[in-house]
Specification:
mainly alpha, Rhomboid-like fold, three-stranded antiparallel beta sheet, two-stranded antiparallel sheet, 9 helices
């Protein structure tokens, strides 16, 4: 399923979400300019599980942070930025700009760490904002369970556009991550599903103190 929009209007301008989105895009443009040096860049700044457990220098630890701003291709960054654009503004609105920065980074690091723990001997660098954005999704489903998500839903060879409650859309999303994560334990490369799971759970837990009542404007259809 592909989200297209939600029905909650943010009451403040999500400046941190915009900044994160722009940073990711600028870094990706920089990646495109590297040519044959791209692999070296990813090796140095991606989060490689083996080197986090067996660090060679400070970059081994810093990669938990730097990896969440690097992407492996157009579809990778498009998917992540789409989810960020749709879900992060309301989470930032509820948490506040300053707290959202810490929240986002902690979720990204939590996701990278769970991936590292489940693949401790992997020498394949992990890159992408998926762990941090999964944290946003975890917070969103807790804070806005009644929000509706307009989604593109595949039915065999056909596609349908429909609204789903956020708890159903994100519940299906999380179940997908869990099932594929379990099925890929011990494999090399591919999608770091446990980074998604770790980020989601971290976001869910960190959002608990922010479950206070607040009035939001919903779109009417």
């Amino acid at each position: 399923m592909l989200p297209l929009k939600d029905d909650i209007r943010s009451s403040s301008r999500p400046i941190i979400t915009y900044a994160i989105l722009l940073i990711n895009i600028f870094v990706f443009i920089f990646e495109l300019s590297l040519g044959s040096s791209l692999n070296v860049f990813i090796k140095n700044f991606g989060a490689t599980p083996y080197y986090i457990f067996h660090p060679t220098n400070i970059l081994s630890y810093l990669s938990l942070f730097t990896s969440m701003f690097i992407h492996a291709g157009f579809m990778h960054i498009f998917g992540n930025m789409l989810f960020l654009w749709i879900f992060a503004d309301n989470v930032e609105d509820r948490l506040g700009h300053a707290k959202f920065i810490g929240f986002y980074l902690i979720c990204g690091i939590a996701g990278a760490l769970l991936h590292t723990v489940t693949s401790p001997n992997s020498i394949v660098p992990m890159v992408g904002a998926s762990g941090a954005i999964s944290g946003v999704l975890g917070a969103y489903v807790l804070l806005f369970p009644r929000a509706r998500i307009l989604a593109l839903i595949p039915f065999g060879f056909f596609l349908r556009i429909a609204y789903l409650p956020s708890y159903i859309f994100l519940g299906i999303w999380f179940l997908y991550q869990f099932l594929f994560g379990v099925s890929t334990i011990g494999t090399r490369g591919g999608v770091a599903y446990f980074a998604h799971i770790g980020g989601f759970v971290a976001g869910l837990l960190l959002a608990i103190p922010f479950r206070k009542k607040k009035t939001y404007t919903y779109e009417i259809f």
